[in-house]
Amino acid sequence: MKKQDISENQAKNVFLGIGSNLGNRIINIEKAKSLLLENRIDFISVSNYYETPSWPDPKKPKFINIVLKVTCEQKPQEMINLCKLIEVKLGRRKSPKNSPRICDIDIIDFDGLVLRDELCLPHARMHERNFVLLPLFEIEKEWVHPIKNVNIKKLIFSLPNKDIRSIKQI
């Protein structure tokens, strides 16, 4: 478990998940990527697009998701604030949990840091989500969950078969 050193200003490796299921989903994701770049978030690698049914209600519009490996100098709270600001800039409004959205940006892993306060790192449910695990595996085949100490391959193999079958790379 890494401890957070507030005085550190070194670049950190961060994995972000970006998803959209309203409007032109790919353009929404590309706009989010542009806004990240404008805010000094440098991309190391970017996954392909993946399409999945909406969860928990598959009758809602399908999601398109990607995962990015980025480097940044922000602290975790500054990074989540930037992500929320970008979501709002792209038109996201307050709505009930799991509602369709123009843009959703999540911090999946912040340099291996473990936090369980106002910000939960790594993302609390990332290990259960096909739309995080498969694109993450595409760009970081040796990634290991900072809390579970389990590699990404094992996490993928632990997904239910229906989750593996319901995702497609586009």
Provide a quick synopsis of the model.
This protein has 170 residues and is of the alpha+beta class. 29% of the residues lie in helices and 24% in strands.
What tags apply to this protein structure?
single chain, alpha+beta, six-stranded antiparallel β-sheet, 24% strand, globular
Describe this structure in words.
This protein has 170 residues and is α+β, with helices and mostly antiparallel strands. It contains five helices and eight strands. It has a single domain (12-169), classed as 2-Layer Sandwich (Alpha-Beta Plaits). Strands 1, 2, 3, 4, 5 and 8 form a six-stranded antiparallel beta sheet that branches. A hairpin with a 3-residue loop joins strand 6 and strand 7. The chain is globular. It starts with 11 loop residues before the first strand and ends with a strand.
